[in-house]
Amino acid sequence: MMKGKAFQWSAAEAAASDAVAQWAADGPGGAIVGFDRDGLRFAVSGGLADLNHGLPFTPDTVSRCASVTKHLLCAMVLSHPEAIALDDPLGAHLPELAPALAEVTVARALSMTGGLADTRESLSLLGLSSAAPSEAGTLMAYHARMTGLNFAAGSEVSYSNAGYRLVEEALKRRGLTLVGFVAEAINGPLGTRFAVPEHWGDPVLGLAPGYWHDGAQWQPGGQGMHLSAAGSLAASATDMARWVAALLAGQGVLSGLWDGMSAQRSLSDGTETPYGLGLYRVPLGDHVLIGHSGAQAGYRAQFLTLPEAGVGVVVLSNRDDVKALSLVLATFAALLEAPMPVPVAPGTLPTGLYVEADGPRWVEVKATSLVHMGTEEALYDGGEGWAESCSGTAPMRLRWTGAALEGSIGHAPCRLLPVGEAPLPEGLEGHWHMPEEGAVFEIRDGMVHWGIGPSRRAAPLTPLGTGRALFLMADGPARRPVCLVKTGADSLTLGLNRARAVPYVRLR
What is the DSSP letter of 12? Predict the structure, then answer.
């Protein structure tokens, strides 16, 4: 019950059914499950789990959960205070890290406030395809060669998978593995079939292939990079609901874990952030929902809960065009008779490109969304001219002053100026490389040339002013705008939202 009113489970099921009905019967699909303390309240599904064999997607279909994995690692950390503490610096467990990374605490690494450069986006900026294989050991060695952070630890909240990879490695060196935790704390007691494969091709019983659409047909998703605790979980919607319900109940060895993970975290200046430890907060009317999202090539996942009532909704899908957060919010809005967030009115923020006075931060304002350094977020009406992201992983609050966009991104104050006519930075022509990583690209005639043989691509540079420019990087289904910053006569950096300053020098 809530404030004397019964939850509207029939309305929630109807909203979920309407959502799955939008997926064509001969295309990939997904499932939406609602639950409370007594078990499942509804389970609906649509589309196919496997396009090759025509198998239907059901609430029991196993799908990749991607970043929903993160709360499992945090539960494991809190379950083993004898092995690792939230206040420990990463360097206490991983002595090979450079000083800037070594000083980041476990809590900051897990709460997205550590400034650690994301593994996958860093590799993209070396020109390494998402399909290229890699192993845990070589990726750890790569992080050990990194010398800087995206931002000073504790000054901003910004999503990165790297902290989870590093903390998982720290636990492994203490003899603790995620597969062991899942077996002992989840599958054994609950009878679930969670799997945490290390590689995309590892066999997982009943796993549905994931799909993305190339504009003409569905294509199978894939990833070559070693799967870490940042995103290795595979599970069904019904098993996920069973686990989250048990976590909320907090009985036995699970006692206190939810409270520890969902507790509000803060920046160094005391500003509270929506991201805790593998869980984040999302407002819906007068309510605060807590859960997490996940996205991998061909998969989307989301769960949210109203913890005080012990209720929740899970979405798992094997098609990457699904807006999983919107589906869960719409289902919860029906359940709680709460209003959905109102999209920002077009024109609230003038469309176009904006950039800070210096540094790599830039945004592109669209009609009802904003692209921050390559990552797009929907914008909602914050009142009095404010536009807000309502995101637990990328909080934004901005308004137009008549001369600039002002407000905050990731709770860090920012002021972004419109991009006007500007020339490309001088001295860009030639080859640029990272000698320690073997990465190289060429700039010729205002174009970035990257790759080898038939994979070689060329992309035009768009000037942003004061030594900066954008170009589009293509990788499978992804098209990401990269910010180039000229830092010296023979040096520059490339940046995306989660890896903001990968350094290159001129190849002579």
Answer: H
